[in-house]
Amino acid sequence: MKLFEYQGKEIFRKYGINVPKSFLIEKKDEIKKIDMPFPWIMKAQVLVGGRGKSGGIKFANSMQEAEKNFDEIMQMEIKGERARKILVEEKIKIEKEYYLSFFLDRSSRQYLMMFSSEGGVDIEEMAEKVKKIYVNPMIGLQPYHLRCLPKEARNIASKLFKIFVENDCELAEINPMAVSKGNIIALDSKIIVDNNSLYRHPELPKETSELTPLEKEAREKNISFVQLNGNIGVIANGAGLTMATLDALNEFNGRGGTFLDLGGTDNPEKVKQALELIVKAKPKVILINLFGGITKCDTVANGIIEFMKKNETPTIVARIKGVNEDIARDMLKDYVIAVDSFEEVAKKAAELGD
Amino acid sequence: MAIWVDKNIRLLVQGITGHQGQFHTKAMKEFGTKIVAGVTPGKEGMVVHGVPVYNSVEDAMEMEPNASIIFVPAPFAKDAVIEALDAGIKTIVVITENIPFHDAMQFVHYGIYKKARIIGPNCPGIASPGKSKIGIFPNQIFKEGRIGIASRSGTLTYEIVASLTSFGLGQSTCIGLGGDPITGSTFIDALKEFEEDNETDAIVLIGEIGGTAEEDAAEYIERHISKPVYAYIAGRTAPPGRRMGHAGAIIMGGKGDAKSKMEALKKAGAKIAKFPIDIARLIRDDKVI
Predict the structure, then answer these.
(1) Residue A209: pLDDT band with limits 50, 70, 90
(2) CB-based contact (8 Å) between B20 and chain A?
(3) Where are the alpha helices (DSSP H) in chain A?
(4) How confident is the model over A109-113, as a mean pLDDT?
(5) Which fold has domain B11-119?
(6) Which residue, among A258, A291, A325, A341, would best test binding to B if mutated, counting the most B CBs under 10 Å from its CB?
(7) Is pTM beyond 0.90 here?
(8) Could you give the domains of chain A?
(9) A60 - beta bridge partners?
(10) Chain B nearest C-alpha distance from A218 (Å)
(11) What superfamily in CATH does domain B137-286 come from?
(12) What is the ipTM of this complex?
């Protein structure tokens, strides 16, 4: 789960990392209540990167300017995302900018600290200037790790490490981190918390605006679901098989509109819930590709039939393989277009979606 | 010979009294796995499909298990893995899904320190047809043979194994490495063992988007693998920044897309399958077995 900048900065504050003085606003009339000398920096609270380049950060030197900025920021779409909140901050005099982050490195299976004495820009653009220090998760951050950082950055690095570990982060990043009048200040925050750990972090915000309304509904129902751009609703079981089904569709010029992983269930109720979700995404065709090892095909068929009896459903092309597949095929013959193979089901769905 | 699991496995099932634990204890026994004990704290004295249940791994050690499979729910999984490692168990398969990444990181490193092999988490396990299975793969898809398989996926692996079997191409060992970003065993571990295994003639890798495990594997293949390698990569059409079901299946910061994985593997000499069933077709047409 990505946190908004203001949420990350709240955590920074809690751990004693300096952040600029700020006010979080949602409505225009809140601007008047801001008790802070100009100039201000007004920052759209969105989760996508590249906010500054898209115009989501604006300066204000007067009330009028602040109000004009407010309207502009709230109306703009930043890479498909709209801000619902604006963080208004005091302007900090920057003497130097650093980059600092901790991150779970998959390849080495260790924590990775990255530091650069040139902050403020995209980390990928300054790859050569980045210092990389691996930290063993059983041992943790040691003083010698910190000694390769400039003196003034060491204390903040150990605080950021504490945040990273205690909040189960995938990434905790400060970019830029400013030196200003002898102080070190986090000008931005980027924190990604591991979703699997949320059960032990009730204190963290629940806001998940990175999801579409349907994706939120799916999450509440514990269904693994991603909304895509195409017009073919895809249901399969297992993440790999679902991805492979979408890829196969693409080979036949079909466009997947949903990724729905039914998981290892043959519970008819779950099948019904999955179909409900898919239908709400308004696909032209639904493709069901199940490879049951343990999943019983006839129970899945039952779920499909029960749903179709009560609901207007687009054409379903299905390939269901596994225990009791013959029974399932027989049950479904008046309801769906049944095909035998992986390739055929993709081909047929792509044709119908065209 | 097969790799990692064979007839000598004496299995412990941690979380044996749960729904999954009970179901798969039965299925693994039917496959031919020797299961000697189960653990569920507070349930000592119970018997699950003929297997005695103990309160702790330490108590269960009187049955001399040498491997463990973990069905314990995510919040308690780290504890269960460390308990098994401390009791001296050297092969541990973690089936549990949704384990916090920091927990997995810690037990993976503790496993390295204890010189143990951990497979998973969030994986279907490992099976050597005709010998033993520690996992949740459906039994009927397998056939004894000479193809080694390592995969980051579950059902997609079943799909590919079943198509191999239907072509008469049997398997030596099939390993599900797991769909999480942090796993105990990697493609490289599997490749190394398959290369040395005299019962394996060809190697199949089933990868997906996210991370650089396939690129790392490609580099290893180029330098160390003489046996033919076949690969399928899922997620060619997945949008960046979205987690596609598996916690590890995400293209992040410009890294982990399918194209780079397929190119790396192809460059290393692996044959790339367009559809899952093409793996079986390619191996059949190459007549390597």
Answers:
(1) low
(2) no
(3) 5-14, 63-75, 143-146, 151-166, 213-220, 239-251, 268-280, 297-310, 325-332, 342-353
(4) 96
(5) Rossmann fold (3.40.50)
(6) A291
(7) yes
(8) 22-90 (3.30.1490.20), 96-200 (3.30.470.20), 213-353 (3.40.50.261)
(9) A40
(10) 12
(11) Succinyl-CoA synthetase domains (3.40.50.261)
(12) 0.93
